[in-house]
Amino acid sequence: MTTIYIFSQIFVIISYIFLATTYYAKNRNKILIINFLSLISYSIAYILLNACTGLAMSIVAMIRNIIFIFDEKKNGKSNHIERKDIVILIALYSISIFSAIITYNGFFSLLSVFATMVYTYSVWQKKTKVYKVLGIPTGILWISYNIYIKSIFGIILETILLICSLTGFIIENKKKKIEEEVN
User: What is the dihedral angle through the alpha carbons of 70, 113, 123, 19, rounded to the nearest 10 degrees?
Assistant: First the structure.
């Protein structure tokens, strides 16, 4: 185990601390900002792990979060999907695919691309419940990618994050059931 690997795992841990908190955030803007901080940390880890596709997907995700944050500030919060939203999603998917082609290193390198695309959709569609549900397949894909790049803490912490996603989903469902019973 090298010093570089140890530092990569420290940045992985920092990243997942941020990510875990997103599943308990109550609004989309907070989710995007906290996720952005996580992506910065994970980008450093990917550089240290020499995981080019993961790094490319982190950069795509940072671009995604910046676009979503500024769009929401400019146009306000909306639960309706408009034409511009569809254009943004297509553009982000196109960037993801282009980045995947450039950094392709075998089928398993694509796991980070699939995870990024599922996660992108989960925050694009603007409903926190769907975000929490899609955290499940996203988590499974990231666990698989972390196995591929041999990130021990990535595997462990993504498993914990998957549990956080499930917990956040369960909590939201319980709150809605209580609200429905009260009304």
Answer: -90
